[in-house]
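Example record

Each entry pairs one chain with its bound ligand, fe (iii) ion.
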Amino acid sequence: MAKLATNTDLPSGLETFKQQDWSSAYCNVEKECSNIQLDLIKGEIPKKLSGIFYKNGPGVLERNGQWVHHPFDGDGMIASINFQNGKAKFTNRFIRTKEWIEEEKAGEFLYRGVFGTKKPGGAISNAFDLRLKNIANTNVIKLGNELLALWEAASPYSLDPETLETHGISNINGALKANEPFSAHPRFDPGHHKEPRMVSFSVKTGPKSTIRLMEFSIQGQNAGSLLSDRKDTFKGFAFLHDFAITPNWAIFLQNAIDFNPLPFILGQKGAAQCLKSKPNGQGKFLLIPRDCGKFANKPPQIFDAPNGFVFHHLNAYEKKQEVVIDSIFYKDFPSIGPEEDFREINFNELPEGILKRCRINLLTNKIECEILSKQCCEFAMVNPNKQGLPAKYSWMATAAKKSGNGPLQQVKKLNLINNETHYWNAGSKGFLNEPIMVPNNPAIEEDDGWILSLIWNGESKTSELIILQASDLSHQATLKLPIKIPYGLHGSWVNLNQTKSIELT
Ligand code: FE
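Structure tokens for the complex follow.
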């Protein structure tokens, strides 16, 4: 694993990896560990790094010889790494969802997956079975005393933040109705309205779509209590995975996408495989006023969005009459067809994720867009204290090559003001997960902190955790994990150091 401080881009078309090294990460998580002290492969854990890194992702990809059709259909497994005094301890648990327990007992898949996994027995056995399996595999966050495993099509599962023991489905202190879905992408307002808050949403979609925007207290005795709640209905089907916040707005991008449920009903496709880009469709930015902001109780504002499909946003902020949002745009909705094997996907045939900035002028209704970075990227974030504010720096995972899609093999720091870049390259056999930026505490500079990411080492066929300095991506430590963890989805950091961060404005 070499650290490269300069651009390591290769021309498009040149491969930097072997497919087998990349796909070897896909396996079942074999065991559960409790408080295992991690061995250092190299470097040293920064002593000031004090807190818990949580990570969620699919942990079951195969049952009785049958593989999931898409890793997103794998049951959630939470890993936690607790850092204290330069040492790190590892714990992991499968989330004991009702369906995981049933399938463990049966030893085979009993439920269909949203991304195309079928029950054994072909279309006849799958047709008209419209039950959703809550796999709780997309994100993990701490809210009050609960650790919540999130999957956007169902209610969260509550876990013990220390032991990761599953407590059961959470309605978040009564905020959610029975079986109400809850987004896997909450945003944390660092304190634009005095106290920090968690902002999240649920969406009920069909020919019309209703977004329920919720804000929760995250500090003190009231942590986890619902502070505000509003519902807005919009025209058309809405697939909303992520959103962004500013002090006054919650910003959604309603992709131009259609949902034809027939192949799902007939047992031929998973529900997510029935999503299709609408030819000549028009995406929309939906700006919903936050209840704590200066446009509270006003109706939402709607603007035409540029072409493309967005899963994730980097950040958003307000500048005079403009709302500015940075998002990762794909040319089209990327999906894995019913006949394809996800382990054999040809990255060159997938659209790449390009970081774009859109400036929405609230007075003139005009939108101006510019490309911030053409290099294929995912999992981008700013310093959490800059959520909703103009940030100078961003961190993301990128492909190793300059253009086109590829597996995530580099961490990139991008200066959003002058485009200066730093890279850390995982090597030709190293593959990244989502990099998490952990601010130093207290921090003086916006890029004072660390980057943490799980890595799949395709050479040793093991999982590792890397720690980089956030400012220059210099390598600090590589830790060996006691289990193999397939590529995961999202994670979070919980500070154990109570010192209040210096406010970064
Ligand atoms: Fe996501």
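The two ends are 35 Å apart (CA to CA).
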